[in-house]
Amino acid sequence: MLNFQEEIVSELVQENALAVVAAGLGLPSILAALVRLHSSSSGVLFLLSVPDDLRRGLRDELQAQDIGAEQPVEINTQFTAAERAEMYSKGGAFLVTSRILVVDMLNERVPFHKVAGIIVNNSHRMTETCAEAFIVRLYRSKNKAGYVRGISDQARGLTSGFMKMERVMKSLLVKKLNLWPRFHLSIATALEESPPDVVDIRVPLTPSMLAIQNAILEVMDACLKELRKTNKVDVEDLTVENGLFKSFDEIVRMQLDPIWHTIGRKTKRLVADLKTLRKLAEYLIRYDAVTFLKYLDTVRASEGVKSVWVFAGPAHRIFELAKRRVYQIVRTDGEQVESVVKQASRAVSKGKAQSKNKGRREQEEEEADAKVSGKGVELEVVAEEMPKWKVYKEILEEIQQEIQSRPADLPEDSWKSEARVLVACKDERTAWQLQRFILKGPEELMREEWNNYLLAKAELHGMTLRDKKKSRSKPQAQPQSAHGLVEQTALLAACAEVVALNKMEESSEAGTSGKRCKGKGKRKKRPDNTEQQVSEEPVIPLQNTGATDMSLEDVGASSLVPPVQYYALESDQYRILDTTGPSYVIVYDPDMKFVREMEVFKAKHPQRRLKVYFLFYEESTEGKKFEASIQRETTAFETLIRQKASMIIPVDQTLDVPSPQAPNSVSSRKAGGRKNMEKHMQIVVDMREFSSSLPCVLHQQGMRILPVTLEVGDYVLSPEICVERKSIADLYASFSSGRLYHQAETMTRYYRLPVLLIEFSQDKSFSLQSANEVGDDIVPANIVSKMSLLVLHFPRLRIVWSRSLHATAELFATLKSNQDEPDAERAMRVGVPTEDGLIEGDVRAENYNTTAVEMLRRLPGVTDANYRTIMDGCKSLAELSIMPFEQLAELMGGQRPARMLRDFLDAKFPTL
Amino acid sequence: SAPAGAASGASNSQSRNAILVSRRQQGNPVLKFIRNVRWTFDDIVPDYVLGQSSCALYLSIRYHLLHPDYLYFRIRELQKNFRLRVVLCYVDEDVIKPLHEVTKTALLHDCSLLCAWSLEECARYLETIKMYENKPADNIQERTDQDYLSRLTSALTSVRHINKTDVVTLGSTFGSMASVMSASMEDLARCPGIGERKVKRLYDAFHEPFRRTSKQLRLSSVGIKPIQEAPK
């Protein structure tokens, strides 16, 4: 461990605190050290909100620090409650899901006096009502001696929102804040003592890429201007620079959320468009030309008519240029030109087609001839390569030379083992592509991508071999219709060729003989046997580990490039550098966290060589983003430092634990609330509800929470009141799935006061739908219609509208005020059938054969209107099954429904 | 399916088809927005009569702030003459406490509270409840596909623990739904995958009468007050 990491740990150990560490400074090492300091003899240590990848990192790091170290035990739903209680009593460190721990604590399965402490990772996510805060509070109310430590590596997460940091600290009940920015003296000295050699390579964008990027930024600017015109948002933050970040959505959302229902469709559209554009800007750099075009096509197909930006002037440029990067339309005027172009294009789009036997080739050529002369145009495939590819290859070659030339004084073996190359790129897709690029070279790679593109296109158009001459134009408006149509036709023709080719390949096993043409847009034909061999090799499937070993040893061209390991930054492996131990790192996609990890790695092994190549696109959004992400973290830390200076923290924060007691709002009419003083109010809560914040808030209100598994309802307030809670999104979803109907049905069956609680969220607007959604007519899909149907069918269902979580808690308290306390045991049994199929407390079940009634109502022809008469006229389903049609018609009030039912009953079961 | 009530109502009297509005509601701007259904003034106890057994009381939050007891007295006047009693609350102020009070009053006095945030929405609720008076709940129920197998599955899976595989087994063994329904216990038991319990459940579903007579009552009520309501 490095000095500063030890410092971080020791400060945390000294006093309960929230430690905010800059990203990438070795979170697993810090956590591992904290775990190692704990021993099972001192009791239980709970580690909360540790995501899976960090868990892995933590385990490996523990192993690395001390082979004999006790590994923390993961607690999940596999263990039964009794097993968990047993494990807790033995002590040790536990990685536990917050939801499980809350329930265990409420059920007193956790020996509070034995819990040495709690460590909450990702503390920046905490709110006063989240499960982690609930756990901390429950713990503190029973055990005042143990420690609570918060850790976060997202400084920015603590600066967004009002008094965010203070609130997090309050939730953790800690008084101290430890800040560890990158510019902290001890960190800076440690990391800058022997920094890695850095080679910064700026790769220029191609002219068309640059033009596309500018066009995207222009459209973005136009959208932003439009957004400003609505006067709904604060203009200051809305700049194109901000627009490139994900957080931009948050900025806009934060401003618009409270008024979201009042803003028009157009504004909402603009917000969505900005998101799309941001993605486009990112993909332009990340995806190759063909994939980018494919993405553009999908974007246009999926949001074509709705979005505003597609119609902006520069948007047209985006589409045109994206196409030009991939293919061009060439007029074929003279015969000779035609044949040349045709050949080239055939070479390009067919590839392996030429390896077919001659007869077929000629036949095909004739076909193509007819088609081409009819149209007079051809597609020329340009398929621009990514500028970074070439540079990437050059770097690899350079490294290889270095590796081969260097080891004069060193023994060969140790040098070789040390000379490992790690390539860090954004995702596995990129890793896979780079790998293929090295294996096959750019032309082959682009050709494959282009063929894939055409195949996908052909599939989209439902094209088969037969209707390949059919040309359909896209629904989107093509600005130059004549030209557009020609282009479309040419494209579809190319599609058809690829489809045909594919079919041929399927039918005849690809022959290895024959000469092969490898082509790209430069109208070159080159028989290349070695190339063919390489391409015939199956592409190494990428393992999901993110880091793929690629041994090029066997491949012919391997002498040029060294063996390479790929690492997808998105897979978040904390110890990738430690496990691979590279001497060369190529950062294909720059990322702040990874840069820090390299710095830490180098500081750990100061004598090791580490050469880092950075690949940036010049004048691109990529570089700006990278720099800004560092800047933003620094700013966040500066803000936190300022806030820390002026922070107001109650001295007795730890004592500020609300112990369960009667709420203050006890009415004085009830003899000073004497009854409530005798025992706590109780609420039976379904286990599944612990992922929401309401149980926590209820507990804050001083109620006793009894977590059980409920078959009916979410909350049971009293023997008579049962509540089904729905957030607005849930409400819509459960209406359309029919779940709500079912829930209402069961609740009304078992409880006298079934309640549907519709809970709004505090920071969103208080209404079910926006003003413009109400409309002038009665529409079945509208929420008003659905609510109306619900009250009509369940007149006994009470509906409660709550403004927020806290309002709900208050409401619950009032509703309970003169009711008996609920019985958890009974509530659990409600709705659960006993062995003989009867359901306890189900009044209907005593009078009706509920299963039979339910089945009857699901039969075709049986409606709400006629099923009662059917039940009157016939005793059972068995009797119904043999009832003649005439009698059915009489019972069901008509020939039609009776026919439907009879037909269904008698229908022959289809043989499968 | 066309609601039978609406069809006969059209011929009966005009007022059957219209929302009846209490004269108290004169001047309520909501009335301007009731466009999809006819309405007439009438001497009625509730503010709106929305069908044979449905009525509604109208209240705005602002009015409640001025007259906190109003709602309670209006509900008391209704007595027990309507099956569905809606309190339609126009939320014209985003304040928590008065809504709280309205909620509590409605809940404890057997009214269904509906909140609306605009006059149009209020009017839409009134119209829709009237229009949907006899409408089945299909729109908010689980939808089943219309093909034979889905329907068969939907019907047979209403028996607990019968799964899709069992449905196919039953269907292919007996050939049709009617034969499944009239199958004997032995025949049912011969189907693979259908154990003793499932056989009993199926057989009971098919052969036990829809309505149990008092003799067949096997379980006495356990503490929960009986609810007198026929299944819908």
From TrEMBL, chain B:
Pfam families listed in its UniProt record: HHH_5, Rad10
Q: Which CDD domains match?
A: ERCC1_C-like
A GO BP annotation: UV-damage excision repair
The record's annotation in InterPro entries points to: ERCC1-like_central_dom, ERCC1/RAD10/SWI10, Restrct_endonuc-II-like, RuvA_2-like
Where is it located? Answer: Nucleus
Q: Tell me where in this chain the ERCC1-like central domain is found.
A: 19-130
Q: Which domain of life is it from?
A: Eukaryota
Tell me which GO cellular component terms the UniProt record holds: ERCC4-ERCC1 complex; nucleotide-excision repair factor 1 complex
Keywords assigned = DNA damage, DNA repair, DNA-binding, Nucleus
User: A GO molecular function for this record?
Assistant: single-stranded DNA binding
The keyword rRNA-binding appears for this protein: no
Q: Member of which family?
A: Belongs to the ERCC1/RAD10/SWI10 family.
Q: Please identify the protein, giving its name as recorded.
A: DNA excision repair protein ERCC-1
Q: Which organism is it from?
A: Selaginella moellendorffii
